[in-house]
Automatic annotation (TrEMBL):
Residues 292-459 form the Helicase ATP-binding domain. This is ATP-dependent DNA helicase RecG. Plays a critical role in recombination and DNA repair. Helps process Holliday junction intermediates to mature products by catalyzing branch migration. Has replication fork regression activity, unwinds stalled or blocked replication forks to make a HJ that can be resolved. Has a DNA unwinding activity characteristic of a DNA helicase with 3'-5' polarity. GO terms for molecular function: 3'-5' DNA helicase activity; ATP binding; DNA binding; hydrolase activity.
């Protein structure tokens, strides 16, 4: 068995045990401990690996005359005067002077003790960023110490912290850990030599106590040998864990589901029934999947393709191949609307060919539910489509050969874990093949190097005959014109979506906005048939509205973001997104992808409320400038970091703390090579390294 995998469950139990006493009562923890724990700091090695964000130079004082706005500096001098002023709001101001000049100090919030500290005549040190204020240079919220306190001799580290946890506490805890912990090198000398890495202990110590001078550059560039070493170790741990997961998968057995090439075979008949020809890009991924299905270990493949690239039909062909071999297929989608749409579409394609398709979601009546569960269990349902209800424990399949997950990035970590457990075949001898689909394009290197144990297929072209979507940015003040545009579009026999604003604070408010918007639009566009769909609508009504819109019995669909993913109505050619500035970039791209699915020229109107903040402006600009999902993903990554892609937002656990997925690809490649080498020649190193770096967090890498 692969080294990393068995540690998984026991490691968790141990963690749970340390958090509670033998009697099962939670162990008392101090506030500080709790806060440290929230930063992932528990054992000495955790602290040792908690490296500073930046450093402060408290080792020297600068002459006040030499200060330039923008620099961070420490000065020492005498307080000349101080006062509390009331305008524009209550604040404390003071002036400190040395032989060379004067510097302003200002506190917008302050304690009486701070006010007392700056009495005229006191000799103090002040530290902080120099600003060029209206009345000369100043520091806002300076950190103050008495001038007779000893001067530190080393740079002072500033650690990533959390509310209510002072730097002084962190510094002490880290310093203590660095004395206690044994920082033995997990890597053999041969590895260090080959990749030119410095030893672990000096690298880590240097990160906590860098040589004086240039420390901030050192931290920002992160190209120093000490950094390279830490990043390499982190990436190596990740690669080792992935390799273990991959090996574990190859050790598992899956049913071989080879392609039936007979003329009357199901797959062949499905091709014939399709209203279109597959694109070359689709053919290529279909072949990759088909080959995987014919192997005797489980497929674990991510099918990536921009919104509208035609992933559903690829899934249908994979399902047909499995069903033709007598296996069952389950397809899971993140929303009921999407699941329902798949149920209908796959039903339309496959039912006429004699395939039984069942439907399983949380909102079925008890009777329907029993029927669906029975059909899954006795094998009479060959394809089961549904929401996450499909992976609940009591759902038993007769002979599950293939599990398809659409919009897989939308599922939380917990759901993905449940899925991977179902995917392990629940103790049976055979595990199902897994096909994950995602329209959120993950940069390829990211997917290969940082994502779980997945092979990746990419549909890199859209079906032919699509006219690119035109994106328009329109200020809220010109809303009337947008309403007119909707009317025009409908007059030409087309359909439109109107997406209501996101209201982060309150779901109830969001709902109300949708209801109000729909009402107003009905008043100003009395000739139009307008439907409303939102998350709180009972499933049957939701389904009915979507069905009416599909059947063109509605002209305009007012919706919340429930239509964000997957919805496919080719006749809809206009998308209006209200308060577009409130949405994230990936979300806007997904929403826009609901149009441009037919041959008509499609328009996406981003209605925004001026004035725009910087970030919102960048986002809308990106939407305006490109339709390319990969480019959008790249910009999104630049703006927000990778958390979203990896689904770590829900888990709150960043996978990579040190390495940078965009710039450290070469290092990641080396780590990948080293992982293979270590697994082959130094298996004893593998476990030691994983224990140091992951401590039972492998689960997150595997999902
Ligand atoms: P997504 O990849 O976003 O899930 P869909 O599978 O919903 O995309 O496909 C988008 C639309 O394109 C659907 O209406 C689908 O029927 C259609 N489509 C898929 N493949 C082709 C093709 N090769 N030629 C023409 N239309 C296609
Ligand atoms: Mg889709």
């Amino acid at each position: 068995m692969a080294p990393a995998a068995p540690a998984k469950k026991p490691a968790r139990k141990t963690a749970a045990k340390t958090a509670s006493t033998a009697a099962g009562k939670p162990a008392p923890r101090s506030d500080v401990e709790r806060r440290l724990l929230s930063l992932g700091l528990e054992t000495p090695i955790d602290f040792a690996l908690h490296v500073p964000l930046r450093f402060e130079d408290e080792t020297r004082n600068l002459p006040i005359a030499s200060l330039q706005p923008g620099m961070t500096a420490q000065v020492e001098g005498e307080i000349l005067r101080s006062e509390v002023i009331q305008r524009p709001r209550r604040q404390l101001t003071a002036v400190i002077a040395d032989e060379t000049g004067e510097l302003g100090l200002r506190w917008l919030n302050f304690y009486p003790s701070q006010q007392r500290q700056v009495t005229p005549g006191a000799r103090l040190r002040a530290r902080g960023e120099i600003r060029g204020g209206l009345f000369g240079r100043e520091i806002v919220h300076p950190r103050m110490t008495r001038a007779d306190a000893p001067m530190p001799t080393a740079l002072t580290p500033v650690y990533p912290s959390t509310e209510g946890l002072p730097q002084s506490v962190l510094r002490k805890a880290v310093a203590r850990a660095l004395q206690q912990v044994e920082l033995r090198d997990t890597l053999p000398q041969a590895v260090l030599d080959r990749y030119g890495l410095m030893p672990f202990e000096p690298a880590l110590r240097a990160l906590h106590q860098p040589p004086p001078g240039g420390a901030d550059d050192f931290l920002h560039e992160r190209s120093d040998p000490a950094w390279q070493r830490i990043k390499f170790d982190e990436l190596l741990a990740q690669q080792l864990s992935l390799a273990a997961a991959r090996a574990a998968r190859r050790d598992k057995r899956a049913e071989t589901l080879p392609l039936d090439t007979r003329r009357q075979g199901l797959v062949r008949r499905l091709y014939q029934a399709l209203p279109f020809q597959l694109t070359d890009a689709q053919m290529r991924v279909v072949e990759e999947i088909s080959a995987d299905l014919s192997r005797n270990y489980p497929m674990h493949r991510l099918l990536q393709g921009d919104v509208g690239s035609g992933k559903t039909v690829v899934a249908a062909l994979a399902a047909a191949q499995a069903i033709a071999c007598g296996a069952q297929v389950a397809l899971m989608a993140p929303t009921e609307i999407l699941a329902e749409q798949h149920f209908r579409k796959l039903g339309d394609w496959l039912a006429p060919l004699g395939v039984t398709v069942a439907w399983l979601t949380g909102s079925l009546s008890p009777r329907q539910r029993r029927a669906a569960l029975a059909a899954a269990a006795d094998g009479s349902a060959q394809l089961i489509v549904g929401t996450q209800a499909i992976i609940q424990e009591h759902v038993v399949f007769h002979r599950l050969g293939l599990m398809i997950v659409d919009e897989q990035h939308r599922f939380g970590v917990g759901q993905r874990l449940a899925l991977s457990r179902k995917g392990e075949g629940e103790g049976g001898p055979l595990a199902p093949h897994q096909l994950h689909m995602s329209a959120t394009p993950i940069p390829r290197t990211l997917a290969m190097t940082f994502f779980a144990d997945l092979d990746v297929s990419v549909i890199d072209a859209l079906p032919p005959g699509r006219t690119p979507i035109v994106t328009k940015l329109v200020a809220e003040s010109r809303r009337d014109q947008v309403v007119e545009l909707v009317a025009q579009e409908v007059r030409q026999g087309r359909q439109a979506y109107w997406v209501c604003p996101l209201v982060e604070e309150s779901e109830a408010l969001q709902l109300q906005t949708a209801v109000d918007t729909c009402e107003t639009l009905r008043q100003v566009l009395p000739d139009l048939r307008i439907g409303l769909v939102h998350g709180k609508l009972p499933q049957a009504e939701k389904a009915q509205v979507m069905k009416d819109f599909h059947a063109a019995e509605l002209d305009l669909l007012v919706a919340t973001t429930v239509i964000e993913v997957g919805v496919d109505v080719p006749r809809a050619s206009l998308m209006v997104i209200e308060h577009a500035e409130r949405f994230g970039l990936a979300q806007l791209h997904q929403l826009r992808g609901r149009v441009g699915r037919g041959s008509a020229e499609s328009v996406c109107v981003l209605l925004y409320q001026a004035p725009l903040g910087m970030v919102a402006r960048e986002r809308l600009r990106a939407m305006f400038e490109t339709n390319d999902g990969f480019e959008i993903a790249r910009r999104d990554l630049a703006q927000r970091g990778p958390g979203e892609f990896l689904g770590t937002r829900q888990s709150g656990l960043a996978l990579l703390r040190f390495a940078d997925i965009e710039t450290d690809t070469e290092l990641a490649e080396q780590a990948r090579e080293a992982a293979a080498w270590l697994r082959r020649d130094h298996p004893e190193v593998v476990q030691a390294h994983l224990t140091r770096w992951l401590r039972g967090r492998e689960d997150f890498l595997r999902t």
